[in-house]
Write a structure and sequence with these properties.
With about 375 residues, the chain is α/β, with parallel strands linked by helices. It contains ten helices and twelve strands. The two termini are about 35 Å apart.
Length: about 375
């Protein structure tokens, strides 16, 4: 797949990727000395606003050149207007989405500090009649789903029956059961990508690698992310395994990194890359995202990927390229030569400036 070209439709597909979930208005504070203290006031050195939730994956996929359709409810308010316009500007097809009258946008405030983040969210379920429909989804090469215990995922079965490769992650199991049988739709997934804390609980194992091997007995491809430690993957069909350490970057905000990782892995899978290259590419996309503010706006485009590949030696004060990184990411050379050089939009500390000047406060 050439990143500068839209993939050709195959088998009558209406889009490359169909994404279902909830869009949040994210407000992210960075540069905090530590967690907010009860009764005190903390000043953040940086702030960013933008779409979050499922918008993270939709934007990341669109920036990699995949034709992406999103099914979500958007608030009937200015936050909803902002998120809708933002995703339209990214080229995301919103025709499957809804704007419920009188329903306000879910809002998440994220506090980034010590390489991690703490989030506070407020929102309500969208009206049942405005939820993503369970009728047959549009034909797509792949789709993205978030699985949760007890939640119906009939559309996942329908998508898989139509030939779509299903990529899914899972949130924290608040029931405490941690049973894979509670995840409706998992048996129809092509790839399952939980983080290490979730994966080891679901499989009753003690390491990401052991968890990936156990999950590969349930789904064709299992990927377990471990943050700064990297990620491991196992293909249960072939027995192939891969482990890739995290790419070193100056982390600013980890919000949405998991969604960007999944998007990078999906892109590489559709491009039919080897498992190790797919895992490495996903890790690079996630690493580049944590160097920026927010969720959706932090997703890298080919401009950032090309710049990173071209500047590998910059990380070494002696000006020598890191031989391990050069070897691991050598597959990027041919792609980067043909990548577009347009830099994507980044988060700013408000939902929209009226003028063309953007405050530098947003970038620190």
């Amino acid at each position: 797949m050439v990143p500068t070209e839209q993939p050709a439709a195959t088998g009558g597909t209406e889009c490359d990727v169909y994404v279902v979930g909830t869009v949040f208005q994210d407000i992210v504070f960075t540069g905090l000395e530590g967690a907010p203290v009860k009764g005190g006031e903390s000043w953040a050195r940086g702030m960013g606003c933008g779409p979050g939730g499922v918008a993270n994956a939709a934007t990341a996929l669109a920036r990699l050149g995949l034709r992406t359709a999103l099914s979500a409810a958007f608030g009937d308010d200015e936050y909803g207007d902002h998120c809708w316009a933002d995703l339209r500007a990214e080229g995301v097809d919103l025709s499957p989405s809804r704007r419920p009258a009188g329903w306000h946008s879910p809002v998440t405030v994220s506090f980034a500090y010590d390489g991690d983040r703490t989030m506070v969210t407020h929102g309500h379920e969208a009206p049942a009649e405005e939820q993503p429909p369970l009728r047959r989804p549009p034909r797509s090469r792949a789709c993205v789903a978030g699985l949760a215990p007890g939640e119906d995922a009939e559309w996942v079965r329908r998508a898989a029956e139509d030939g779509s490769l299903v990529f899914a992650d899972a949130g924290w199991d608040t029931t405490g059961r941690w049973s894979l049988s509670d995840l409706d739709g998992l048996r129809h997934c092509h790839a399952f990508l939980p983080n290490a804390a979730e994966a080891t609980r679901y499989t009753r194992t003690d390491s990401p690698r052991a968890a990936a091997r156990a999950l590969a007995e349930v789904v064709p491809v299992a990927v377990v992310t471990a943050g700064a430690w990297g990620a491991v993957a196992c293909d249960g069909r072939t027995g192939d395994e891969a482990a890739v350490p995290a790419v070193p970057v100056d982390a600013l905000d980890p919000t949405g990194a998991g969604d960007v990782f999944l998007s990078g892995f999906l892109f590489a899978t559709l491009a039919d890359w080897p498992l190790a290259d797919s895992l490495a590419f996903a890790g690079l996309c996630a690493a580049l995202s944590v160097a920026e503010f927010g969720g959706a706006h932090s997703a890298p485009g080919w401009h950032e990927i090309t710049r990173w590949w071209s500047g590998l030696s910059d990380a070494d004060p002696r000006g020598r390229p890191d031989p391990e990184l050069l070897h691991r990411y050598a597959f990027l050379a041919a792609l980067s030569e043909r990548a577009p050089l347009t830099s994507p939009r980044r988060a700013v500390p408000t939902i929209g400036f009226r003028g063309a000047v953007v405050s530098p406060v947003a970038r620190r």
